[in-house]
Amino acid sequence: MDITAVTALFADLSQVELITWVERGWVHPDPAGSAFEFHEIDVARVRLIHDLRHGMDIGEDAIPLVLSLLDQVYELRSRLKSLLHAVDRQPRDVQLAILAAIDGRPP
Q: Of 44, 60, 76, which residue is a domain's last?
């Protein structure tokens, strides 16, 4: 999507504001010549920032911190999913030992 298509999704988001978000590194669209190409993940990020700024009235100075914390949460979720898949591939006795260790019980 180009910048016009993205801003058309929001009644109160201007191209100038969206470009500012890109310049601040809050959104990372692909450069497309002299413009930007926004992918689905970029639009989701724009939607999140829009909700933070316009819906929750989070100040511009707090946005980098909020985005950083949310990015950390998403990364943690991804790592936990990978860990769960790795545990699922283990023999049953290893799985039980891991579960016991997590619960603080002896294996």
A: 60
The β-bridge partners of 30 are: 37
Q: How many domains does the chain have?
A: 2
Q: What is the pLDDT of residues 16-65, one digit of tens each?
A: 999 999 999 999 999 988 899 999 999 999 999 999 999 999 999 999 99
Tell me: do 34 and 52 sit in the same domain: yes
Rounded-to-10 torsion of CA 62, 65, 68, 69: -110
52 lies in the same domain as 65: no
Q: Which string of DSSP letters, residue by residue, matches 51-107?
A: IIIIIS---TTTHHHHHHHHHHHHHHHHHHHHHHHHHHTS-HHHHHHHHHHHHT---
Helix or strand holding residue 49 (H, E): helix 40-50
Indicate if 68 and 106 belong to the same structural domain. yes
Assign 20 to helix, strand or coil.
helix
Domain range for residue 32?
A: 1-60
82 phi/psi in degrees, rounded to 5? -65, -40
